[in-house]
Input
Amino acid sequence: MPIHLQREIDKIKKSLLSLCAQVEEQVHLAVRSLLTRNDAMAKEILQRDLEVDHLEVEVEEECLKTLALHQPVAVDLRLIISALKINNDLERIGDMAVNIARKAAALAEDEPVELNFDYGVMWTKTQAMLRDSLDALVNMDADLAYNVCKRDDEIDAMKSQVRLEIEDRIQKDPRKVKQYIRLLAIARNLERIADLATNIGEDVIYLVQGKIIRHSEHGDVS
Output
């Protein structure tokens, strides 16, 4: 690989990691604002979303510039294409953080409701998937990427668990239906973040092995 192309690719990887760290922090704060009923923290996330959008545009411009100036081929071309897709997924995760923050801000003003479901646990597992998907990219580790894809079913099951509990709570106490619907929307956003982390894992597998597993059953990937 020409040294100038290597430098550009290293820059793109570094920028993606920076975007991932910022997006992770956004979702972490959003979930924390939910758990602590911190309205000010939730509103701060909304203001910081512009930074995520700006960085996403910068990464896209770096990728397009590298394609135009260096005309990469083979694995280098796959890396740039994957980086473009991953960059878009990270920006969408940032949008999920904004959605969670909006719901958290509204819930902070409502009468509290109780659930047995632990949103902190769901976020911890989702966050681990996101981190591992980016580690797989940096280290070109297809095995770790496959592992991320397989873990998506666990998050899906957790979303189903909270949905069932919320449906039961609404029947027993319909006065608080707004709060319960907002909590369900937060679970859906966390599940969507896990889906996007899975997308990143699938892109890494394509990058390393040239395989497209997008429509495979996660339990069957190997």
Summary: The mean pLDDT is 90. DSSP finds seven helices and no strands in the chain.
